[in-house]
Structure to design on (145 residues):
């Protein structure tokens, strides 16, 4: 991807959750204020493939269909005009790692918070927690209403 370093990039993680949609709306508003561009990143990974105990899964992922669904979701959340200005990327891999790589050189990385706390967060881990500790740019964590 060729990037114009003079234009602020706002990277936002999108996973289909209400919190990620709130983060997407926040990212678009912020980019408008700073004259930046928005890159929406959706990462996908088939859980259990790294271990022998994983369930049998269908490995055929229709990437074109998934990109089309992502575009449709962006349109539903932002409206057609605004969604058209968002650069959407569907990337295979660990969400936190993908977002950290995508945010290198960005103005800000925006993610949603699913609001897990306490013991559940310790067990499940958290993309927002991970990126907030390891990102090389400011991170904004947005909660849904």
């Amino acid at each position: 991807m060729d990037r114009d370093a003079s234009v602020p990039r706002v990277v936002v993680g999108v996973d289909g959750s209400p919190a990620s949609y709130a983060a997407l709306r926040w990212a678009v508003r912020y980019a408008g204020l700073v004259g930046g561009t928005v890159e929406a990143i959706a990462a996908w990974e088939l859980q259990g493939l790294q271990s022998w105990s994983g369930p049998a899964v269908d490995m055929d992922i229709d990437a074109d269909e998934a990109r089309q669904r992502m575009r449709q979701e962006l349109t539903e959340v932002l409206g057609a005009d605004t969604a058209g200005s968002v650069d959407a990327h569907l990337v295979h891999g660990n969400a936190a790692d993908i977002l950290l790589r995508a945010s290198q050189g960005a103005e800000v990385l925006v993610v949603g918070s699913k609001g897990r706390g306490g013991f559940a967060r310790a067990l499940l881990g958290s993309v927002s927690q991970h990126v907030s500790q390891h990102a090389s740019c400011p991170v904004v964590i947005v909660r849904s209403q």
Remarks:
- The chain is about 40% helix and 20% strand.
